[in-house]
Amino acid sequence: MEAFGNAKTTRNNNSSRFGKWTEINFDKGGAIIGGRIINYLLEKSRVVTQSENERNYHIFYQLFAGAGKTSNESDPKKNLKLKYGLGEAQDYLYTNPGNWLQANKGEGTAVHGINDEREFDDLMAAMKVIDMSATEVDNVLKIVTAILNLGNVSYIPDPSAQGEDKVKVGDEDPLNKFCELLSIDRASMLRALISRGIGSHSVIQVSYNLDEATQTRDALAKTIYGNLFDWLVRKINTTLTVDGTYASIIGVLDIFGFESFEKNSFEQLCINYCNEKLQFHFNEHIFKLEQEQYINEGVSVDNITFVDNQPALDLIEKKRVGIIAMIDEEIKTPKGSDIKMLGKLNKQYATKGKEHGNFQKPRPRAKDSDKSFIFKHYAGPVCYDVTNFMEKSKDSLHADVESTMQMSKHPIIQSLFPIAAPSSGTGAGRRGRGGGKKSSKKTLGTQFKEQLNSLMKTLNATTPHFIRCFKPNKEKRGDIFTSDMMMQQLNYAGLLEVCRIRQIGYPIRHEFDAFFKRYTCLDPSASDLNALIGKLSEGVLNPKDFAKGNTKVFLRNAQAQELETAREAALSKVATKMQAIARKFIHRIKHKRYLAIIQSLTKEVKDRNAIGIEHWVSIYRNAPQLR
Fold first, then answer.
1. Nearest alpha-carbon partner for 40 in 458, 326, 496, 423
2. How far is CA 539 from each of CA 535, 536, 543, 555, 572, rounded to the nearest angstrom?
3. pTM of the complete model
4. Which residue in 6, 219, 534, 569 has a CA-CA distance of 20 to 30 Å to 201?
């Protein structure tokens, strides 16, 4: 999953570009008997374009490295370069989108700490572990290579067009390789990439302009890769899933964090919606833990509240009037558009007297204000550009492209693009006004909402533990902490809100025994905890800033600091006294030893014993601590 789902970004050389729930199943005896993986929202846009200094998914570079290692093989079946017709990373648009690699001959694909050649070998071994046959592995690599070739399908103006903005495929060699690798009819695919059919009984081919043709090509590449990723997850689950029932589970949720960029689109809305959901669960859990602890300890605490982001969730997921529902409705509307959808959102949530606390229109003079809205998330406001919201949520290919893929003779492609069973309804297979077949397929937004709701049911049925990961700097180096970056992540993770909740109550807690042992130095005469607290209440302890529960002593921050200051003073006083006693003892020993030497030396002088005199003088000289 790392090979197909992780990539180098500007912040992380091995960044996971999808969310996943990994579940381990146990029997009654505590033995592992199986597991499963659920994946969420793969970043498919990375397949067709990446920012500078970032990479596409690892699998592409691992395949280049693996093919390079076998380039000297004379057997075409072992030489992956010959077998798949592979070039280098700089030869493909999808691994060199800005032509950045041309100047350094592809050396920019190397990543510190990652050996693509070794990772390719590990990938091949992992595929064997999940019982993938040699034919399946070969077919997967063919699909990866085909995607690279699809990206190199370029368009040029069609000279035969009379006053129309029509295009045709320029160099057809990448298209031929793509169709050959995936066993697809070349003529049908060529037609589907440069035009679309409109009409039900009499189909008319309408040519694409350059933007439409490019979007169709890239949409196909993203769909193939996304479907392949889902197929691999299903393959893993087939190996992991246990027959029968299990007694308990341990689940690990590894999912994207809050995102806010200069330009935010539908993907960021979904990611931040997910974080709103998880933040609600986190706040509710922490709040319940706090309340339960005070109740169990018999401590009364008033005015503990947490920021409820339920209104933000309702704004996104509410039926009929939520953002996801309104996007879905606009998709179904004839001649619907992103701008019309935005107008409906503004009317619903930004009209005077109907303002929503989490929705705001940008200032009129702000950049792209006419196609944007501001959502006030728990972590801060984010401005979303609605361009392509509908297309991204629809997440579907034109019927002509899909039907061409369905006719493939490639075994895995056939499972990635299954032919839907005919519906019993009278309208089965009808084309819509835009030429595409009407489909009951759920939009990406709705699918993601249902996935999240299912995930929350699972999380609510478990005992959660939270691990927060922070990136301390953008340099990807140790021992460097950028304070602004860390503070931003603390806010995004909701930990500042946790600190606020803890500070409202009594954030410092000590078990009775621990409290007595730690602070008995303030009153050594105290025989038990009650006596100690009674004595401390006469001076250090303020009744408003501490509370004695059933098993713990609760303290506010300021009170805990005052206690620590008093403890340090008491220990310092005792330490000073102990030092004085020790010094007195040492000096007494020195003095007694000194007198003994003087007495012995005096006796030897009286006796005129030169040897004795020399002996005691030597002892004195060799014992500087006596001088």
1. 458
2. 7, 5, 10, 15, 19
3. 0.80
4. 219
